[in-house]
Design brief:
By secondary structure, the protein is of the alpha+beta class. It contains 2 helices and 4 strands.
């Protein structure tokens, strides 16, 4: 979660972590918002869920848009994945 938050904040995105619930689901949520290149506002959520598979540790990251253009969120997602601090941790097919 710290790598994702630092990367988003470094890109000018406002991030606010929500308190973890007591359900034991292990899902951490962050509220994100900002402006795209066209100066249009967007808001949404980033959910991070840790998992273990065959002795490997990883995380599923899901981004959900509440307001704004879907293209803005897709651009943000691609930017996050290619950022130098995050790219080594991304598993691709």
């Amino acid at each position: 979660m710290p790598i994702v938050k630092e990367t988003l904040e470094g890109s000018g995105i406002t991030c606010k972590e929500t308190p973890q619930d007591d359900s034991g689901s292990g899902v951490r949520k962050m509220r994100v918002g900002g402006y795209d290149k066209r100066k249009l506002a967007f808001k949404g959520w980033v959910e991070i869920e840790h998992f273990s598979y065959r002795g490997m540790q990883g995380s599923f990251v899901v981004m959900q848009r509440d307001k704004g253009s879907p293209l803005s969120l897709r651009e943000l997602w691609k930017g996050l994945l290619t950022f130098t601090a995050v790219a080594p941790h991304v598993l691709k097919k």
